[in-house]
Amino acid sequence: MDEDGVLLRVEGLEVRYGRETALRDVDFSVRAGERVGLAGPNGGGKTTLLKAILGLLPVASGVVRIHPGARVGYLPQQASHSDPLFPARVREIVATGLLGKGRAGLRNGDESRRVQQELERLGIARLAGARIGALSGGQHQRVLLARALVGRPSLLLLDEPTSALDPTTRETFYETLRCLNREEGMTLMLVSHDEEALRRHTDRILWLDRTLCRDDVLERSDVPIHAEGVTGP
Ligand SMILES: Nc1ncnc2c1ncn2[C@@H]1O[C@H](COP(=O)(O)OP(=O)(O)O)[C@@H](O)[C@H]1O
Ligand SMILES: [Mg+2]
HSE-up of 89 (CA within 13 Å, CB side)? Predict the structure, then answer.
């Protein structure tokens, strides 16, 4: 980490789809341990920003710098219809979270143990052999979270993770995120249309509408992170 604890820095970012500019002039940085909400209208570029951070989309100009020691986890936006007969089992879906990441430093044979640990940590070990299409919405989302977490990320990107969940399951999901942030210092970036939820569960909200329109740091008395730079009483 550099001295100001910056984990992610985005500078002058522009992303295009063909001739359409989805994002331009986006500048911000995220410090380790922050919980950042991403809000804005449909088509405002929230998913595009996450994909650009992940390196899944080419950048037309600007840079995305991720601290070299950081690993990034991703919970993608849900497709509205998932095939209930899709033949993969939960443990296979979660194991795909270890692909292409240097497998989080694991040797052959350690991967299935890592998957099992992650399922246990999230309280879904009993689902390891279940077909992914047979799960409830809340269980399905937990499996996708396990896949995002199995590579032990320091930065976790979540794209509308709770939009398909009922209110109770949603609160449980946010409680899990709170634990990951508090107990492991995980940095979170969370897309949501629910401004109230973002106000309750993040420290800061970035508003995107093809560019960064607003960067609201939320007032919190219980979160020490923004106190770091304060020198006087
Ligand atoms: N694969 C794609 N090809 C072409 N245009 C796209 C593609 N994905 C997104 N877009 C366009 O980019 C803009 C931003 O989309 P997106 O990042 O998905 O917004 P949000 O997640 O905020 O709803 C939209 O105008 C959308 O139509
Ligand atoms: Mg989106």
Answer: 11
| Cα 37 from Cα 208, distance rounded (Å) | 10
The pTM assigned to this predicted structure is 0.90
Whether 76 lines ligand 1, by a CB cut-off of 6 Å, is no
Whose Cα sits closest to atom 3 in ligand 1? 17
Residue-wise pLDDT for 124-183, tens only, equals 999 999 999 889 888 999 999 999 999 999 999 999 999 888 899 999 999 999 999 999
Q: Residue 13 CB: number of other CB atoms within 10 A?
A: 24
Residue nearest to atom 4 of ligand 1 (CA): 17
Atom of ligand 1 nearest to the CA of 210: 14
Measured from the Cα of 48, ligand 1's closest atom is 17
Burial class (CB in 10 A: 0-12, 13-18, 19+), 175: exposed
What's the one-letter identity of residue 200?
R
Q: Could you give the domains of the chain?
A: 1-70+155-233 (3.40.50.300), 81-153 (no CATH)
Q: What is the pLDDT of residues 172-223, one digit of tens each?
A: 999 999 999 999 999 999 999 999 999 999 999 999 999 999 999 998 755 5
